[in-house]
Amino acid sequence: MDAAFTAEQDEMRRTLREVLAKRCGPDEVKAAVRTAAGHDRELWQQLSRQLGLPGIAVAEEYGGVGCAPGDLALACEETGRALLPSPLLATAVLAAPLITALGTAAQRSALLPPLAAGELTAALAVPGPALAAALALTGDNAPGDWAGGGRAGGVQARRADDGWRLYGEVPQVLDGHSAGLLLVAAHTGGFARSRTLLFLVREGAPGLVRDRQATLDETRPQGRVQLRDVEAELLGTENRTDPLPALPALAALAATGRGAAAVLAAEAVGAADRALARTVEYVRQREQFGRAVGSFQAVKHRLADL
């Protein structure tokens, strides 16, 4: 097995690193996270047009680049190196794979092209602090209790004459305050036929209330999403003959979780590599008692541990 990067992968990493070095320094990151959206919209559009960043792992038939998920992880290593605040994780890593896996042909054709082009951003709304559970990162997500489990709380979905209606609140949604499309995990069926399904909610839908929340990591902006009898569209189709029609949604969430874990690991590698490079640069330049601090034995031992 050859684990070396291909020429195309090396070129992608080089180009992305060059762009981010020019447009995503410490001052630019601080300015971007303090905007209403929480990221630099102009830079996001540049990365979308020139590099196809949000569509790297989207099939070519939907306007994407058509690369493998591993290529998206490589790109995220570079965004992690620069601590880029962007909708990439919520849109390309969480939302796009779910739409690809669960959406109808019409939904995929309508949503994936603008997502791949960076014209539309999306967010995954999971009730409570349960995103890791929903993505099966902390265990089996099949019971679906994280979405309400047939009891009060979470987001409830009910049938209406015009489709589906959602009611509830999701307090922490990555990019939930600014995304143009929300994928909402909601409980339906009552206690007897408890199911967890995914629904699409468009920006500006009547009854949708969103506000940005304070976070420890400003490069990961979050929003509180309130759904007050909001009209929603079921993602995919409901198979009424299946006693457990939520299973495909739960399986898709678990698969998306595995991809998200790989991407987050790649981001951490990029951030750690950049931190190490800056540390080495500092100890070579900083002088004390007429010598670079990196030449002192105690500092050398600390650097060796890195």
Annotate the secondary structure layout.
Elements: H1 7-23, H2 26-33, H3 41-51, H4 69-82, H5 88-102, H6 105-116, E1 122-125, H7 131-134, E2 155-160, E3 163-174, E4 181-188, E5 195-202, E6 208-213, E7 222-234, H8 247-285, E8 287-288, E9 291-292, H9 297-305
Parallel strand pairs: 1-4
Antiparallel strand pairs: 2-3, 3-7, 4-5, 5-7, 6-7, 8-9
Helix pairs in contact: 1-4, 4-8, 5-6, 5-8
Structure, explained:
The protein has 9 helices and 9 strands. The protein has helices at residues 7-23, 26-33, 41-51, 69-82, 88-102, 105-116, 131-134, 247-285, 297-305; strands spanning 122-125, 155-160, 163-174, 181-188, 195-202, 208-213, 222-234, 287-288, 291-292. α1 packs parallel to α4, α4 packs across α8 and α5 (88-102) packs antiparallel against α6. The protein has one domain: Butyryl-CoA Dehydrogenase, subunit A, domain 2 (Beta Barrel), CATH 2.40.110.10. The strands form 2 sheets. Strands 1, 2, 3, 4, 5, 6 and 7 form a 7-stranded mixed sheet that branches. It has a two-stranded antiparallel sheet with strand order 8-9. β4 (181-188) and β5 form a beta hairpin. Residues 241-245 have low confidence and may be disordered. It is of the alpha+beta class. The two termini are 29 Å apart.
Feature tags:
306 residues; alpha+beta; Butyryl-CoA Dehydrogenase, subunit A, domain 2; seven-stranded mixed sheet; two-stranded antiparallel sheet; 9 helices; elongated
CATH architecture: Beta Barrel
Secondary structure tally, helices: 9
Mean pLDDT: 88
Structural class: alpha+beta
Secondary-structure element order, as H and E?
Answer: HHHHHHEHEEEEEEHEEH
Shape field: elongated
